[in-house]
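Curious: why this fold?
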Amino acid sequence: MINIHVQILLIILLWNSDCQIIPRIEECGLSCSQGVHCKSKPSSDIFNSFCHDAPTSLSSTILKSMKISTVIKCVQGSPCSLHLNIKGSLSLDENIRGLEICSLSLDTQQSQCTNVRFARKKSKMLNGKKVQVQFNCFEVNVAQHIYVTMKTVPNYCDVKMSQEYYVEDCKNSDMGKYIPACLAGKLDYNVERARKIISVNVSNFLRDQDYYVRLCHKWFTCEDVGQFAVIKGKDALKSVSLKYSQLLPCLCIEGWLAVPDARRIQLCPFENDTKVLWDNIVYNPATQTLAWEPACPVLVTVNLCRLTKSNDHCEDIQNSSKHFPEKQVKYSRVDTHPRLCMKFTTKQGSWVKCPFAHGEFPAWKMRTAAVADQIQVFFTSQTKAHFSVLVCNKTQLASCDLLGMHHSVSAGDSVSITMSQEMCGSTICIQGWRTDVDYSVPLQICDIHCGFRGHTYGNGSPAKAMTHRMKSMHSLH
């Protein structure tokens, strides 16, 4: 229950930070409590960096408090800017001439300082009075990490206040309305496939500012695809045309204002069109290596599979499953049979690609012939190859249980398999595959019916001559 309460509190805090109203000002400056005259000037006094021992009469808690917030300065005719609003309080003392307030950007290590001085006559008269000081002229950037310090002038050791502060980011609604870096714009597009052009129209951004648009491939970052285009702030037409080479799932349109640290907006309209990714399959005959390299990052499981004779199912080959993201999926010593394929499975579905289906590479064939009480199995191949063959019982679509023993044979040779009555039936198959490669498609010739002329078995009925339901000789390739 505690964890749930913590999560709810975090959600409320984040929601409040996004919806928090940031005050707007027209000009920045310094103000002090009523009756206290003060003025400020930029400080670069290096000597105030070194502290002195405080007088015994000076309390170390003379600096009472420091609060930091953000304000938006908007002047008509100019872009709005962000400023720190620093409020501090202290007790006036005859030993203090003023305050030094500094802000340091922990992102860039750039610092800004101002020196606040009190009128000496007034400060003596108001000795011990609590004074409020407010300064809001330090300009900052969106989502900046700031370190603020407040010290006395002179700088007395151990009399100091400091605080870290994070400037709001572009999720804040006021930031999105007024700060140029957060006005990312709105992108609309149209694809001209014949010309391979994407036309992009931009709206909802500062009209007097230039705007950049580009195409990119989104990996960990968005990598450039060609040159970016510039929409000039003075142009009446806020659109550009960008050429592409291929519509990929990771092809995105990115736009941003031509100002430092501008927020970028991305539109990736083709991210569900993953079908194009499965075409990049390459086979190297010298190493017998089959490889696939994605043009885009994608969560996918890759398998080698055997395409069935009906072409409506591809059965996975054992121990061939690989999971992406990887730079490349590679299979070594692969059989180039036309029915050996690659299967790609994502949450959108499965796709099968058969790189050897068009006959560019040599394929092997298996055929059988019935001779008396035996099945003779022949293998032919245009290249040197070795095979294994067995009889199996196909009880399920993707599995065939071994009956008897394995037989080894080379291309151009044959092997004879003696069939017993227990090894005959509608689910019986002769299965063969290459053994001189790591990944081979197992081919099957099934539906074998047989019997034995002149022999009588336990049920007393005479056996028929061994037959193959379709014909006495059968081939598969």
Summary: The mean pLDDT is 84.
